[in-house]
Write a structure and sequence with these properties.
Distance between the termini: 46 Å
Shape: elongated
Largest sheet: 3 strands, antiparallel
Number of strands: 3
Helix content: 40-55%
Mean pLDDT: 92
Strand content: 5-15%
Structural class: mainly alpha
Number of helices: 2
Length: 92
Amino acid sequence: GYFQAIELVKDKETKETFNHEEAEELLRGFLSGELYRRGLICRTDDRGDPVIQLSPPLIAGEEQFEEIEAVLRPVLSEAWERVESWSSLSRA
């Protein structure tokens, strides 16, 4: 099948990554369960940089990739809102 990974970073320009506690909260505390609840079976991993791993079958086509994107985009947006709230809390 296909194999793709989305690397998660705090800052796209500097590629600053999450510390262990942040990665744990982001991946296991939110993303893994929320993606599954919304129907996307994938794997989150933080053994290196935090990533979401996707492996749809080779027979997946445009319709399936649109479905994956329709789940991923809003969940990643919600995850980013959480990350931004951590930043505002640490500045307070």
